[in-house]
UniProtKB/TrEMBL annotation:
ABC transmembrane type-1 domain boundaries: 232-456
Protein name as catalogued: Maltose/maltodextrin transport system permease protein
Membrane association type: Multi-pass membrane protein
InterPro entries tied to this protein: MalF_N, MetI-like, MetI-like_sf
Subcellular location(s) per record: Cell membrane
UniProt source species: Deinococcus antarcticus
Family: Belongs to the binding-protein-dependent transport system permease family. MalFG subfamily.
Keywords, in A-Z order: Cell membrane, Membrane, Sugar transport, Transmembrane, Transmembrane helix, Transport
Amino acid sequence: MTAASPARSLRSAVPPEGTSGFLLAILILGVMLGLAVLIGWQLSLLTADVFPKAPPYMILVYILGLIAVMTPFTARLFPWITNWYYLLPALVFLGAFTILPVILTVNYAFTNYSAQNSGMPDSGVRAAATLDAGRRVVTLQEIPEEGGLASYLKCKTPTCAGDTIVLYDEEAAVPFRAEIASVSGNSVTLAEPVPASLRVTQVTRVNRYEYIGLQNFQEIFGKATEALWPVFLWTVVFAFSTVVLNALAGLILGILLYNKRLKGRNIYRTLLILPWAVPAIISIQMWRALFDQQYGIVNKAMGLLGVIAIPWLNDPLWAKIAVVVVNLWLGFPYMMTATISALATINDDLYEAASIDGASRWQQITNITLPLLRNSFTPILLSTFAFNFNNFGIIYLLTRGGPPVEGQVSTAGATDILLSWGYNTAFASAGGQNFALASAIALIIFFLTLAISIVNFKAAGVFEEARK
């Protein structure tokens, strides 16, 4: 009787209560979606084998169809689960845009996946070839690279048994992958005959990616002085200086503009909030033009005062100063608005009582305003630090990560932060589109951000507040 009771409760129409019921619903829905993805993936692979020209989006068709079929079936098994079906869209988007990218990033970090090792046929080293009458032996007219046929095909074994060769017809439109049985000289013996419909004229290899363990991390830490440590140090300095400067500017302006006796304070608020209202992509491009060494207004105005032109975006030190200045321009309105909002929560009676006791305006600020703003500003400062630690936009739009620094790798410029360094490694030509190395950098960024966040939370007493 005791063992049968949970089974009846799961098959009833009344949903389980509490946290355990919520977690059970998430588990059942997650298993249902996982099965739909797994079966849909296998069906898409089977479709690709039977119909090579089938569109890649067939996997989505299969997954959506399976979800539509499995949803009522799951409701029959667990009638109460219908109360939780509103979570399905959230779980789908969570899996597609959060869980899947994280899994792929972790997976690629331990591979050699790049633009070259992409698992696709290498079109740059195609070789002319002919097929014998038995349609099993492919003979290359000439091997494009030195080292023999096994080296050209990047075989795992000297005989190439079990490896793959890619065959093309005259149009070279659709590659045909064939399994290799053995190689000898310039000839490749296939495991199975080539279909009669394919007239082989060219062959090439597959630049497959494979697991290489910790080699990406060894490369990063092996050249730490050329990229990792300089970029990491600047990332911390950039995030910390931004938080300090923006907080000070926002705090001072917020306190000044909250003064009810200040005439025209609403006009000042409107003017000072404009940098926040204008899209950052427009503001940053304008600042890039203003900081131009030869034609920028900043240098032209300083030239009228007898100051020589400053290489704002061409010198490593001045470029960093320019980044901090522009980020101050973009960030202080937010801090100012947060300060004004927090000041509105402070009871005016405290200031009246302090005035009666003879406290000056400065004493009121230091003894009433700042202590009462601490609780409000702590989470704002922590979140601002975390945001600027990965603030890719301003770096990319203002300096493109440059200028280059002598002694550092080409993908890590003077103003590159960790995130932009990973972007350059993955997508810029200088980085060779090394997606695996960029994934390893992303994992390092994750652990560094996690460590810094824990230290910040502990220093701010967030954990102690949570225990209370």
